[in-house]
Amino acid sequence: MAQRNLLPEKHIVDAGYIDAELLASSVTEHGVNLIGPTRENRSWQARASTGYAASHFQIDWDHCQVTCPQGATTRGWYPTVNRFGTLEIIIQFDREVCAMCAVRSLCTKAKGGRRVVIQPLEKHEALRLAREYATSQEWQALYHQRAGIEGTLSQGTRALGLRRTRYRGLRKTALQHAATGAAINVLRAVRWLDGDKPGRTRVSRFSQLALPA
Ligand code: SF4
């Protein structure tokens, strides 16, 4: 899209295209805001609604210091490269301070002081802002535009052979894609007139277990 000068201001994508790295680099490299569901913080502290997750800590980026919810400040700030080759920052609190903490059980199960791993500033902020934005009604309305697209792609590839081109050359292939799109519309219109109304989005049995009773 960049080569063809077709970059959008906002690009609505599924969860597979949303992570801190992509959120930050799409803005800095292309000026594109990615809109999509962010992965939840899966740490036990975040899942326990009363726990102290990384988001509860105040980060002073200028002085490389972090303050915990109980007001203790960090002993160490260690930029490091993880096993995936990604830069991250390990924050370490004093073992003695955490040992004396009255709410330690909300914060850490480690024998030593609490350790928090954060992303570098640009990525950390990109993810934080994306998570915050995803809770807004504006985000919901924007993301609603993507509703149904996976079903449409699935119909195109499974029923109409969208994955394979019958022609050589991009121009003819583009024409095939346009014809496939028109065929999907015709198929759906015929089904609608036949009384076949769209069903509800299928929820797998496994996912149903997570739904409220
Ligand atoms: S355990 Fe340590 S880091 Fe956690 S809240 Fe207590 S003093 Fe702060």
UniProtKB/TrEMBL annotation:
Domain of life: Bacteria
UniProt KW keywords: Plasmid
Domain Transposase DDE: 67-188
PANTHER family, A to Z: TRANSPOSASE, TRANSPOSASE DDE DOMAIN-CONTAINING PROTEIN
Record protein name field: Transposase DDE domain-containing protein
